[in-house]
# Entry
Amino acid sequence: MKRVITFGTFDVLHVGHIRILQRAKALGDHLIVGISTDALNYSKKQKKTVYSQFDRLEIVKSISGVDEVFFEHSLEQKGDYIKKYGADILVMGDDWMGRFDEFKSLCEVIYLPRTEGISTTEILAEIRAA
Ligand code: C2G
# Structure
């Protein structure tokens, strides 16, 4: 059984998020998703999420194909999470290309192309402008 792990904030869920989760799942049998905590997200982007980490976790957990979810507290712990969850493959969008290559000693690392033309930032900008 192949275990796939991926990570993300998944705020204001959209089709780009769904597609990367579906494509990640298609690479194995069991999909584990690390949800960035509010604190980790703030440290990465210097802005707050719309939905709390608890809501984001609950939403992602309810998506068909997602088998397990947990909170990602820091980027530095990625190797520990890969080991803890016994992941065979780490999947990330290609906006992270090369950033997690150090984990190739622990598991396969695959960067998938992002879905073009959609992002949480653009959705929020459109809502604000409406
Ligand atoms: N994504 C995508 N297409 C989009 C938008 C996002 O394929 N149009 C992918 C991203 O590449 C990422 C995942 O969806 O793999 C989650 O995206 P974000 O919620 O923006 O996650 P991010 O804040 O990049 O957090 O440890 C890494 C981080 O936790 C990733």
